[in-house]
Design a protein that fits this description.
- This protein has 3 domains: 230 residues, Neuraminidase (6 Propeller); 113 residues, Immunoglobulin-like, CATH 2.60.40; 163 residues, Roll (C8orf32 fold).
- 14% of the residues lie in helices and 45% in strands.
- The strands form 8 sheets. Strands 21, 22, 23, 24, 25, 26, 30, 33 and 35 form a 9-stranded antiparallel β-sheet that branches.
- Helix 3 packs across helix 4 and helix 3 crosses helix 6.
- It is elongated and about 95 Å long.
- The relative contact order is 0.11.
Length: 536
Amino acid sequence: MNYLRMLFICLCIVIQFAFAAALAAVGDVTAAFPAPGTCPTGLSWDGKRLWVSDLKTDTLYAIDRTDGTVTDKIAAPTFRPLGLAFDGEGLWCVCGEEELLYRIIPKTSLVTHRLESPVEKPTGLAWDGKYIWVASRKAREIHQIDPEDGTTINSFPSPARYPQGLAFDGKYLWVADRVSDKIYLVNPTGGEVIAMFDAPAPYAYGLAWDGEKLWNADFQSDSIYCLSVGGDDAFIRKEGKKQRVEFTHEVRNYGPGIMESLDVYIAIPENLPNQELLGKPVFSPEPTGFLKDRWGQKVAHYHFTDSPAGTINKVSMTVEAEIWDTRWFIFPDKVGALDDIPADIRKEYLEDDDKFSLDHPTIQKAVTEAVGDETNPYWRMRRIFNYVIDNIYYEMSGGWNTAPAVLERGNGSCSEYTFVFIAICRAAGLPARYAGSIAIRGDDASLDDVFHRWAEVYLPNYGWIPVDASRGDSASPEHQADSIGHLTNTYIITTRGGGNSEYLGWTYNSDEKWVTRGKCKIYTEHIGEWNPIGGE
């Protein structure tokens, strides 16, 4: 063992104790040590030890999970061992050369069964107590197969492009992908991605579940990592950046008549999981006053009188904030029942409104078809999400129609996706509302005059969760899941509302109301100008 390898082991031990002393968030590395070989691939847990296959030495190693010490080793049944799975007595091993699955008994090193892989380019394996799961990097699929003859029981698309490791924790399937460098929590019945987090190193390969934590073998770092998946934090945030946005609302009277009165309302942002204000918003000019609408949304109010032709009434709000990429990690089995939702939340966010039309036959039909007999609030939300993206395609044609009309038409803007999603959720007993934002468009120094809106759903035991059906309208399981319980660090949320507001109406960010005398041509403009703080 050379000096660098010894140094790495010592460093890993220090890291292990440091993490053990702290409360680990989902995806955090709580222990790490070198793999027994330099080309680790498959990983499995036999109830006492971890087993790791090594591509270079053609060996299966049993290692102690506390420090990585090798306690046993046997020759692999193939010259290209990849995925591993333990079925209670035998280890299943993928032969990457001949695309075969071998079952070997560790105590005797005897091969007792051989299967032809039902998929091309098999990689990861997992055992669910009855069947084997195998990942195909060529087909980008995951198959559940009968260990006797290889018959496919169930199959679905892989979360991303290059599935490698698989593990089963008794309820969910875990999938490691080496191209996206992420690890996914997957519903083993339908293949929906429930959540994801970044892999601990660049080439995530084998996965194993030891009953409490997830283990990952990384091919590039030649290391074994223990990952926490049971953190108490409802969300994880990363990649924080400090930004300044100036939101300008301008109303021009081209006349020839007089604008007798003008009221402008600007929504005021607050601290939320994805954003923290660095100070109070700065307004120019000073507002006439501050108000709060029926949904609790604070607004700055401006009142102008007697604006003749040629008048430009311009107001602005400047906000400095740190914004994060924020991801909620939700276990469906830990979501409470509908009856667990607080009464005040149900009262406010299950009510009808003109954009929703909850009793309309189109909405009632959608609830029946989408939800069926599902009772779990999380899966109700996912079924409604799937229904919306299956029945609407994105098209921003102007105007915001009602939810039934949008569904019948079959296309809509982000706001219309949101109205449809909220309507079906509320009709299904799930409290829902919307969030409106100013968005960074590409570079951190950018201009937004389109803006963006999405929904939030209340899940008992987790609270309000963002769901962006228009952004998640994709055939990719990863892209769909990336729009549920996830906000990128490109938004400042200004507005949260449950429906029509006495100040903002159905808009977000800002709105205006005016009274004119004579013929008047009124033009309005709304712009969000972004700049990184310290990087102008």
